[in-house]
Every structure is written in structure tokens, then in C-alpha cells.
Amino acid sequence: MDWYPWLKASYQQLIRQYQAGRGHHAVLLHALPGMGDESLIYALSRWLICQRPNGMKSCGQCHACHLMSAGTHPDWHVLSPEKGKQSLGIDPVRDVVEKVYQRARQGGAKVIWLPAAEQLTEAAANALLKTLEEPPEKTFFLLSCREPARLLATLRSRCLYHYLDVPNETQSVLWLNTRHQYDREALRTALRLQSGAPLAAEALLQPDCWKQRMVLCQAVSDVLTSRDWLALLPALHHDDADVRIHWLTVLLLDALKWQQGASEHLVNQDQVALVERLALEPGAHLQYELQQWLACRQRLLSVTGVNRELLLTDRLLNGERTFSSSIQRTDHPFLVN
């Protein structure tokens, strides 16, 4: 599994705690998508399960390390939903709990990894609670999550919370620069669009994805001239419409920053001219549209069976009325439809 330089500090911090005898049996690792937290969990698992750790590293030579490299260690368990399911039910949890109370097959530690702890159903989470409170000796639970608030409070309270912070932008730009031939403005833009997560930024910079963002930016530029906001529909109406709406809302937010003299905080570093054009629109209109697009995105993500094309069409027609109106919504800038 790949290793990334920004994982080193968290890895060392957690390993030192185990070396000092203060390591927690259950770690809740909170990380943004695209931070490579699975690599950190795997490295930590290897150290815990290694028969002859070499300082802060697993030895790589013992039988346990060979089994981990092959992905066949009988005391390393990955708890994830069955194929095609979005939640982790009680039966797989019970199976793993039963195994951790048995003797370790290799005579060492037992490690259970939950790649997405938010997927636990309430019943499955409750089935874990007693074991998390009083686990068998040398048994470790490593939980990855994106939104800790979605976990049961009782489950969170039994874990050591660790946040995997994003690296500073300079470090991330240098790392991305070794992998992509884009200018620094594009690299910074990709990072900021992905909240600083380097692997998510790298995914965005893949030619097909980056091209779609550029198509949307050009469509917004054309609309500012034509005033035909419905012309944005082809650039938005795709399976990843929520991502494209995110790109659009960040442009609107950047325009508001520009109006407030905060241009140094722009996300779209490679689209300054477009942001400046958007900033010519009334601020109240920009605020209203930003709020409406955020609500539209939430509906796309949360309403089952929503008619995406109809939703986007209605939103664009409403936006056209907003920007063509001569009356600024200064009294109620965040009105909803």
C-alpha cells in the first residue's frame, strides 16, 4: 500500500503512545476523503501485529509481516458492508466479535479495521459497544470515519479520537507537482476545491475530470454574456451533478470574496478573470444564488428518486430570474423557493 509524507506525524504520534504503554485499544481516525487514511491504518496494523517490531516500523521479515503483505493474516479483520450494500449490519460484527474472543491464530495481536464506521447500523454499533469497552487482551479496533457526528455517542466515547490534519498547501503543491504537469495556480485550485486533501486533489486533476470543470467554467463565462442561464444545464446534468454544483457554488463564493476585498482567499486561483466578472453581479443576488444552489445540492444527495433534470432546470430558470431582476434582495438575501 502506498505511503504519503503527510501521514508521518500521525503515525509516529500513535506508535509512540503504544511504545509508552499508553496506546488505546480503539482508535477513531477522522479524516477527509483523499487523505490516504487507509495507508495509515494499514501501517499501524502492521506494527501492532508484527512479531519483531523494529522501532517505529514493522520488521517486514517475520511470518506475521509476510502474511500481512499477502493480505492473508488470520488475525487482521476488515469490517465492511457486503457488496452492493451501503450499511454494515449486525451479523458481520457478531462474527468478528466472536473471533476476537478466540485465541489469536498467530499468537500475537488481533486487529479489526472498520474503513467507514459511519456505515454501522445502530444495531451493529450496539453489538460492538461491550467489546470496545472491555476488549480481550492484545485486541485493537481501528475505525476510520468522515463524519464522527453520525456515530453513536456511546461508541465515540469508547475510542481515542485522532484527526488526520491536512498538510500545508506548500507541501501539497510540491507533492502534486511531482505527479502532474499543471501550473501552480491549477494545483492550488485543486487542493482548495478538495479542502486540502492531496489525493482528492490528484483525482480532480485527472485529465477527464479537470476537463469537465473547465467546461463548466467556460459555460458560466458564456452565460454571463448571453444571460441564458438554462444553457448551463448540459454542463451540470450528469451523474456527478453534486460535484459540479460544488464547483459552481465555490465560484459564487469567490465572487463574494472579491467584492469584500478578500481576493487572496480565492479558491479558484486559475479562474480569477471569471471570478472578477461574476463579482460585477449584485452581492445580494450572488448570496441568494449561493444559498439556493447549496439547497439544490442537498436535495440531490438526500432525496431518493429525485428528478435531477427537472430539479436543475427549475433552479436554473429561477437563477435567470434572479440575475435579470433589477430589484436587489437586500432585505431577504437568503430566501428559498
Automatic annotation (TrEMBL):
EC number: 2.7.7.7
A GO BP entry: DNA-templated DNA replication
Keywords, sorted A to Z: DNA replication, DNA-directed DNA polymerase, Nucleotidyltransferase, Transferase
Keyword Transferase among UniProt keywords: yes
Reaction catalyzed: DNA(n) + a 2'-deoxyribonucleoside 5'-triphosphate = DNA(n+1) + diphosphate
EC primary class: transferase
GO CC list: DNA polymerase III complex
Chain ranges of the DNA polymerase III subunit delta' AAA+ ATPase lid domain: 167-206
Domain DNA polymerase III delta subunit C-terminal positions: 208-319
GO MF entry, a single one: DNA-directed DNA polymerase activity
PANTHER family xrefs: DNA POLYMERASE III SUBUNIT DELTA, REPLICATION FACTOR C / DNA POLYMERASE III GAMMA-TAU SUBUNIT
Name of the protein in question: DNA polymerase III subunit delta'
Organism: Samsonia erythrinae
